[in-house]
Amino acid sequence: SSSSLFSDSRCNSNLCLSVIYSPSQKVYNMTMSTDGGGAPNGWYAVGTGNKMKGSNMMIGWVDTTGNVVMSQRTASGHDDPVTTITAAAATMHTKQSFSNSSGTVWAWSFPLSSSDPTPGSSTSFIWALNKNNNPASSTSAHLKQHSDYGTFSLDLTKPYTPFTSSSSSSSASG
Q1: Angle value at C-alpha 61, between 121 and 30, nearest 5 degrees
Q2: Where do the H-state alpha helices sit in the chain?
């Protein structure tokens, strides 16, 4: 039931991050979104924790055909993230991910391991982007360094309440 789920979201002028935490499944269901899309508009990333080193990161971009690309990466420090990850593999939610002129959404799940801290009222996530770097469509494409970055603090003790809107055309979940 949704009563055992917790969620929070944060936005800045560049992107939004929404996280639904399931303690029973030990998983983060995550959505990153930005305005605009349907064509390459740079790369956007969020990750667990408050620094790049050891962060479980998801980097998203739109390729030249307008398709959404997601690449799970990690970094050993403040350096180029690699696709060789030690974290459990993410599940990409391709049906919930899209890009068009009104916006771009990347959706995925990160399983939590026993070594991950228990999410709480101040759970840290990092974000970064480079709006002027459009990687190739390969998930292992090279990225240029971020032009902007920071952290979000989410309260993952807040009960999840499903969002309902008259403009929503789908009631699918997953």
Answers
A1: 25
A2: none
Query: Are β-strands 27-35 and 43-48 bridged in parallel, bridged antiparallel, or unpaired?
Result: unpaired
Contacts of 22 (CB under 8 A, 6+ apart): 4, 5, 29
**Band of pLDDT at residue 173, cut at 50, 70 and 90:** very low
Looking at the predicted structure, is the pLDDT value of residue 30 above 90?
yes
Contact criterion met (CB below 8 Å) for 145 and 129: no
| Tokens read off for 75 | 């970094």
Helix (H) or strand (E) holding 151: strand 148-154
pTM: 0.86
Question: Rounded to whole angstroms, how far apart are CA atoms 138 and 37?
Answer: 18
- Both tokens assigned to 17: 């991050």
Residue 41 to residue 29: CA distance in whole angstroms = 24
47-69 pLDDT, tens digit each: 999 998 888 999 999 999 999 99
CB 42 within 8 A of CB 62: no
Average pLDDT on 166-170 reads 46
